[in-house]
Design brief:
about 40% helix; 3 domains; Rossmann fold; 4-stranded antiparallel sheet; about 400 residues; disordered N terminus; alpha/beta; Elongation Factor Tu (Ef-tu), domain 3; Globin-like; globular; 6-stranded parallel sheet; 12 strands; single chain
C-alpha cells in the first residue's frame, strides 16, 4: 500500500479535526455503528443479502466496524499503520463480492449515523472533516480490493463472484461437525490456495427472505481435485447463528449445488519458514489448522510439528482418525488432545483447559511458529498463556471465526 497520496490529500485542519474525534468515537463507537446498520438496511434492504444478519444480532459486526473506524481515525495521517486491518477486511470484502459502488452508500449512512448519535456535538466542521476522511479511507480499501479481484481472476482456475460447486460427498465427522466435498459444476480447474484460507458459501434457503453468505475454512490441503469444508452445526433453538449450518447439515445432500467464492484470507501457513511448528485448535477452529497440518507434512517433511487440539469430549472431536493416520505415517508430527468435559472412557492427554505448564510439556522450545484458532472464549483464554511461553509476538498467528474483535 502506498500512502503518499493519502498524506497530501487531507489538509492539516481536517486531520486535526478527525483525530480530535477519536475519544468521542471510543465512547460512542458502537452506538454510532448500530445506528449505521439500522439506517443502511432501512435505506438499502438489498444489502441484507451481503451482511451476516447473525453477527448484526449478536452485536459483533457493529463492534468490528467500530474498531476499524476508530483505528482509521486514529491513524488518518498515517494509514499505512492500519495496513494489517485493511488487508484482513479487504480479503473478507473480496470473498463477499463487495463492489466499489457500495462504498458511497456506506459512507452516506455512516455520516448520518454519526450526526444522529452525536447530535449537537456533530458540528459542520466535524461532519465536513469526516466526509473527506471517509473518502480517503474508502479509496484505500477499494484499491487493495481491486488488486485482490485482479489477482484472483488471473490465477489458474481462479474466478470472481460466485461459481457453482456440486457437493460430491457429505461425511459426518462427529456429533456436530460434517464435511462437504465440493467440485466445480463446470468441471474446470481449481485454484491453488494457502492452507488456512476460507471460501464464502452463498446459501439460498427456502423460506428465508435474503440470501446468507458464510465463510468456511478449507479443511483439506491445497492441490486436490476438490475443496472441503467441515461445518459445525450451531444449535438453532433461540439462536439465529444456526440458520446456515443447519441448512447445510439437514437440507444439503450429495449432488446439490452451492455457489462459492474463490479462496481468500490472510491467516495462512508460511511454508518458507522451517522453525518448529505448533498448531493449536479449539473445537471447529481445527478446520484451517487441519489444512496446515496436511500441507506441512507434504511440503516440509523435516519440519517438527506439534498438533494440539482441545474439544469438549470424544463425541464432538472431528477428524480424529485422519490426524492419527497422519501422525502414524509422519514421524515429524506429535499430537496432543485436551478434553474439557470427557465422557467415561474417553482418552485424552490432558483434562480441563489448556494451561501454561501443560503447553510447556508439549512444546520443547519457545523458538517456534504458533498458529491457533477457535471460538472467542478459547482464543481469549489461550492468547495470554501463549505470550507467557515467551514466544516472540511476530511468531504467533491467529484467526477469529466471525468479525475480528480484540483479544
Amino acid at each position: 500500500m502506498s500512502h503518499n497520496e493519502v498524506k497530501t490529500s487531507l489538509d492539516p485542519k481536517t486531520i486535526e479535526t478527525v483525530k480530535a474525534t477519536v475519544p468521542v468515537l471510543a465512547e460512542h463507537g458502537e452506538a454510532i455503528t448500530k445506528r449505521f446498520y439500522q439506517l443502511l438496511f432501512q435505506n438499502h434492504p438489498e444489502l441484507k443479502n451481503i451482511f451476516n444478519q447473525t453477527n448484526q444480532k449478536r452485536g459483533r459486526q457493529p463492534r468490528a466496524l467500530a474498531n476499524t473506524v476508530y483505528a482509521a481515525a486514529q491513524h488518518i495521517d498515517q494509514l499505512e499503520e492500519i495496513e494489517p486491518v485493511v488487508i484482513q477486511v479487504a480479503h473478507k470484502h473480496r470473498s463477499l463480492n463487495i463492489k466499489p459502488e457500495q462504498y458511497p452508500i456506506v459512507g452516506e449512512n455512516l455520516l448520518l449515523a454519526i450526526k444522529n448519535t452525536l447530535g449537537d456535538q456533530a458540528t459542520d466542521d466535524i461532519m465536513s472533516a469526516w466526509e473527506k476522511a471517509y473518502k480517503v479511507i474508502a479509496e484505500v480499501f477499494i484499491k487493495v480490493e481491486q488488486e485482490m479481484y485482479h489477482e484472483v481472476s488471473h490465477q489458474t482456475g481462479g474466478w470472481t463472484g460466485f461459481r457453482n460447486f456440486k457437493v460430491t460427498r457429505k461425511v459426518q465427522e462427529s456429533d456436530v461437525i460434517t464435511s462437504f466435498y465440493l467440485k466445480p459444476e463446470d468441471h474446470g480447474l481449481l485454484p491453488a490456495f494457502n492452507p488456512g484460507q476460507y471460501i464464502t458459501v452463498k446459501a439460498e434457503i427456502p423460506g428465508e427472505p435474503y440470501t446468507h453468505l458464510r465463510q468456511y475454512s478449507l479443511s483439506d490441503a491445497p492441490g486436490q481435485d476438490h475443496f472441503r469444508i467441515s461445518v459445525k452445526r450451531e444449535d438453532s433453538v433461540g439462536h439465529p447463528e444456526g440458520v446456515v449450518s443447519n441448512f447445510l447439515h439437514k437440507q444439503v445432500e450429495e449432488g446439490d449445488v452451492l455457489p462459492v467464492s474463490a479462496p481468500g484470507g490472510d491467516f495462512h501457513l508460511d511454508t518458507e519458514n522451517d522453525k518448529p511448528l505448533v498448531l493449536i485448535s479449539g473445537g471447529v477452529g481445527q478446520t484451517p489448522i487441519h489444512s496446515m497440518l496436511k500441507t506441512v507434512v507434504k511440503k516440509q517433511p523435516n519440519r517438527p510439528v506439534y498438533y494440539i487440539h482441545a474439544a469438549t469430549n470424544d463425541d464432538v472431536h472431528a477428524l480424529k482418525q485422519e490426524v492419527q493416520h497422519i501422525a502414524a505415517e509422519s514421524s515429524q508430527v506429535k499430537t496432543f488432545t485436551c478434553y474439557s468435559q470427557p465422557n467415561k472412557g474417553d482418552q485424552s492427554d490432558y483434562v480441563g483447559y489448556i494451561t501454561l505448564d501443560w503447553l510447556k510439556e508439549c512444546i520443547p522450545s519457545s523458538d517456534c511458529e504458533i498458529y491457533f484458532c477457535g471460538p472467542e472464549g478459547f482464543m481469549k483464554h489461550l492468547k495470554p498463556v501463549l505470550y507467557e511461553l515467551n514466544v516472540p509476538s511476530q511468531q504467533i498467528h491467529y484467526e477469529f471465526f466471525g468479525p475480528h474483535v480484540d483479544l
